[in-house]
């Protein structure tokens, strides 16, 4: 158990070091490269948070004093050459969804962000939409686009979980077949062919006449 704690602490130190190295060199990259690095920092932040939660649980179990959380916020760690906050990081960070009056307006605003490639802020606004209008006819669509945004960023593990929410929370959704198809694709991208085949065969069973079924059959040939 103590060995597990040591590993978690070492992993967090390694992840924090990676973030600091990226932040230190941000000024040397193009805007496009900085956007990609911002996404990597976001993933590293999430990994550190998950490790910290496990670490606290282990230390609590052993009766040890909990470790202090690692500060990975951009305000503390990301500085530009002039000493101010790094603008690229701020541009890519999620912002609070704009206060849009009305269900349709809020959904349309989020979808517009999604279509324009602003996946991070689109996700935040889709989440706000689902929170405010959980019974909306577009709630399942909002959850699907959240999943699709992760898929487009090649964050396949997260995409799989979000597609599953579509299937579990909205079993009669017209996005169910598409969610299963993309979930199967995501498993395939991760090299988990057995799971991919399982999901795609389930799609064929539940949605045999759908357009997605045609794509599923083609994908199964390569698995």
Could you list some keywords that capture this structure?
single chain, 223 residues, mainly alpha, Serine Threonine Protein Phosphatase 5, Tetratricopeptide repeat, disordered N terminus
Please provide a brief summary of the model.
This protein has about 220 residues and is mostly helical. It is built from 11 helices and no strands. The protein has 2 domains: about 1-90; about 105-220, Tetratricopeptide repeat domain (Serine Threonine Protein Phosphatase 5, Tetratricopeptide repeat, Alpha Horseshoe), CATH 1.25.40.
Overall description:
Helices cover 72% and strands 0% of the residues. It has 223 residues and is mainly α. It has two domains: 2-92; 103-221, Serine Threonine Protein Phosphatase 5, Tetratricopeptide repeat (Alpha Horseshoe). The radius of gyration is 20 Å and the shape is globular.
* Number of β-strand runs: 0
Q: Structural class, judged by helices and strands?
A: mainly alpha
**Main sheet summary:** none
What percentage of the residues does DSSP assign to strands (E)? under 5%
Give the H and E element order. Answer: HHHHHHHHHHH
Number of structural domains: 2
Overall shape: it is globular
Poorly predicted runs are 1-5, 69-91
The count of helical stretches stands at 11
CATH superfamily of the largest domain: Tetratricopeptide repeat domain
Q: From the 3D structure, determine the CATH topology of the largest domain.
A: Serine Threonine Protein Phosphatase 5, Tetratricopeptide repeat
Cα separation of the termini = 39 Å
User: At the first level of CATH, what is the class of the largest domain?
Assistant: Mainly Alpha
Mean pLDDT: 76
- What is the CATH architecture annotation of the largest domain? Alpha Horseshoe
Radius of gyration: 20 Å
The share of residues in helices is over 70%
């Amino acid at each position: 158990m103590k060995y597990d704690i040591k590993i978690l602490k070492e992993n967090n130190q390694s992840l924090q070091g990676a973030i600091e190295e990226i932040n230190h060199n941000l000024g040397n990259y193009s805007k496009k490269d900085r956007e990609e690095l911002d996404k990597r920092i976001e993933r590293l932040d999430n990994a550190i948070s998950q490790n910290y939660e496990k670490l606290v649980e282990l230390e609590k179990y052993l009766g040890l004093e909990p470790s202090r959380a690692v500060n990975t916020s951009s305000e503390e760690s990301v500085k530009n050459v002039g000493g101010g906050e790094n603008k690229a990081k701020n541009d890519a960070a999620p912002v609070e969804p704009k206060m849009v009056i009305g269900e349709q307006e809020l959904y349309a605003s989020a979808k517009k962000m999604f279509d324009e490639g602003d996946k991070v802020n689109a996700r935040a606004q889709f989440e706000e939409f689902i929170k405010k209008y959980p019974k909306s006819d577009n709630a399942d669509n909002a959850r699907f686009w959240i999943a699709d945004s992760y898929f487009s960023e090649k964050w396949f593990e997260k995409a799989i979980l979000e597609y599953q929410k579509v299937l579990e929370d909205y079993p009669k959704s017209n996005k169910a077949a598409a969610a299963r198809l993309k979930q199967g694709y995501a498993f395939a991208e991760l090299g988990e062919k057995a799971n991919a085949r399982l999901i795609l065969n389930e799609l064929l069973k539940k949605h045999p006449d759908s357009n997605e079924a045609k794509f599923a059959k083609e994908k199964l040939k390569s698995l």
